[in-house]
Design goal:
The chain has one domain. Helix content is about 45%, strand content about 10%. Strands 1-2-5-4-3 form a five-stranded mixed beta sheet. Strand 6 and strand 7 form a beta hairpin. Helix 3 runs antiparallel to helix 7, helix 6 packs antiparallel against helix 7 and helix 7 crosses helix 9. The longest helix has 21 residues.
């Protein structure tokens, strides 16, 4: 996995070999530092926690991808196991985070929400949620317990520890592709992940477990429909997102390979029955707006 500030490159592209200077290493985003600190603190208490979202994709990305598609990461997103939620709550509070008590009382069986006060060590100086450039800003930690429930539901707990520090690339990709009302930010994150990860049949650095992805989408017509639609949307936006022709072609090729594998993968009876209904009935949920 690429370390922060390391000028990593895709295999077969040694620095300077093509006459193009390596990209300037990007500073580690504040929320990446904060998220890594929480993962480490939880591990010290025997609590398995993994990062997801844009900051997790940043961690897995090369310097080239970071320079081209890196963005502001306003908060920290984590996944943990429900059975360890009590211990995790203690860890988060020890780290100076404050619980959103009403939200946690209502949703605590599947999701937790914490916020960092402006005095927190990782408070950005000019955070968009904060009081402005004159002082530290506040930020949030969103914790999903076992399942990720947004436009579609994903079981993340069973594969929480497939890789270190972040969720496996397959799950990271699915959490982005499951967004029914997708936006440019989500599609940019998809492109950033596929910049350095190629479809394969296993997890690991530089790999998207396509076998796992095809199985999950082959059991859920709704997820399959949203995911393949978003892959097509990402492919259509690559000309705007990625300036480098080689990287753009590589990402497009990987999108095609993933789409083809999802289309040709075996489908369950439930998938086929739901496909008969098609788009006449809404196939996704409208996520509840979280008030922070």
């Amino acid at each position: 996995m690429t370390e922060p500030g390391e000028a990593s490159r895709p295999a077969g592209r040694p620095g300077g070999a093509d006459g193009v200077p390596p990209p300037v290493p990007q500073p580690v985003p504040q929320m990446v530092q904060a998220g890594r600190g929480l993962v480490t603190a939880a591990a010290g208490r025997g609590v398995a926690v993994r990062l997801l979202g844009g900051s997790a994709i940043w961690i897995r990305a090369s310097a080239e991808a970071r320079a081209a598609l890196g963005r502001a990461y306003p908060d920290v997103d984590l996944v943990a196991r429900k059975r360890q939620s009590r211990d995790l709550r203690a860890v988060l509070e020890e780290q100076g985070l404050e619980p959103e008590r009403m939200f946690n009382a209502t949703h605590g069986a599947r999701r937790l929400l914490y916020h960092a006060p402006p005095s927190h060590p990782h408070a950005p100086p000019s955070h968009p949620h904060g009081p402005g450039s004159g002082g530290g800003g506040t930020w949030h930690v969103d914790v999903f317990l076992d399942t990720f429930e947004m436009s579609h539901t994903l079981d993340l707990g069973a594969r929480l520890e497939a890789e270190e520090e972040t969720l496996a690339a397959c799950e990271l990709l699915l959490t982005k592709l499951q967004v029914a009302e997708v936006n440019r930010k989500d599609l940019s994150d998809v492109a950033m992940l596929l910049w350095d990860h190629e479809p394969g049949d296993a997890d690991g650095p530089g790999q998207v477990n396509l076998t796992r992805m095809a199985k999950v989408c082959g059991a859920d017509w709704g997820l399959y429909t949203t995911a393949t639609g978003n892959l097509a949307a990402c492919a259509g936006l690559l000309g705007e997102l990625v300036a480098d022709p080689g990287a753009r072609a590589r990402i497009a090729g990987r999108i095609n390979a993933i789409t083809g594998a999802l289309e040709s993968a075996p489908k369950t009876i439930a998938w086929r029955m739901r496909a008969r209904v098609g788009r006449r009935v809404r196939w996704y949920e409208v996520p509840e707006e979280v008030v922070r």
